[in-house]
Amino acid sequence: MGTDVFQFGIRKIRVWPRDQAVQRLDEPRVLITDFADHPHYHPRLTQRILSLEQGSEFRDALFRGACGVKVRHPGRWACVEAELVQARAVALFKHVHQCDSAVVDDSWASVYHKHDYCAPHSHTRVQSSVLYFLDAGDPPDPDDVAAGRFCFADPRMRACCPEQEGRMTSLLVPDLRPGTMMLFPAEFVHHVNPYLGSRPRITLSWNLAVTAIRGRPGTREDYRPA
């Protein structure tokens, strides 16, 4: 997977820890891994994201259903904790696609406040998307355990179509907790249910391709490989 190491004071953290396990969900193209060392870098990463969210060139507030407030381009935050997590996303992509190169086409943190949600969508241009779960925010209400949950809702996924092929009658809801990283095909439709907590819910995302793509995400420019 790689042997690069990041230095945090006197502590060294490997980009890919030894014996780091990657598991497949009911949909075999969705893979999850949990980083047990996340307590060593989550506090400073959370602090950096919330600081940038308050006002910076990276802040991108769209509308309530667009995944809360986005803080764009983690690799440019001058934050070694963000660089570590991005290096892990790239390492996971290279492992899954068995390739030596990976290009970050787009990247952001999503900060969800009360009643924020993410409408159903998929990602264009790239092979895979990677989601990293930083902070779940407040515990879910026992009367609405689905609040704030990430869900797949795609008729191409067998797990979503248990009754009849191509007819979506179920959701695939991964078990995501702090330190979880998930890779999935970018074309899969997914969403996040409205979040009802008061403390911010925070995730990071990357859209990754094997080779660079012309144009910019979110535009109608040429999508062919550069």
Task: For this entry, give a set of tags.
alpha+beta, 8-stranded antiparallel β-sheet, 226 residues, globular, disordered C terminus, 28% strand, 3-stranded antiparallel β-sheet, Jelly Rolls
Can you characterise this structure?
By secondary structure, this protein is α+β, with helices and mostly antiparallel strands. The chain has a single domain (28-209), classed as Jelly Rolls. The protein contains 2 helices and 13 strands; from the N terminus they run ββββαββαβββββββ. Strands 3-4-11-9-13-7-6-5 form an 8-stranded antiparallel β-sheet, with helices on one face. It starts with a strand and ends in a 17-residue tail after the last strand.
The CATH homologous superfamily is called q2cbj1_9rhob like domain
Corresponding CATH architecture: Sandwich
CATH class value: Mainly Beta
- Mean pLDDT across all amino acids: 93
CATH fold annotation: Jelly Rolls
Basic shape: globular
- The parts where pLDDT drops under 50 for at least 5 residues are 222-226
Secondary-structure content class: alpha+beta
Number of helices: 2
Order of adjacent strands in the largest pleated sheet = 3-4-11-9-13-7-6-5
Largest sheet: 8 strands, antiparallel
Order of helices and strands: EEEEHEEHEEEEEEE
Estimated radius of gyration: 17 Å
- Percent in helix: 10-25%
Task: Report, as a whole number of angstroms, the end-to-end distance.
Answer: 26 Å
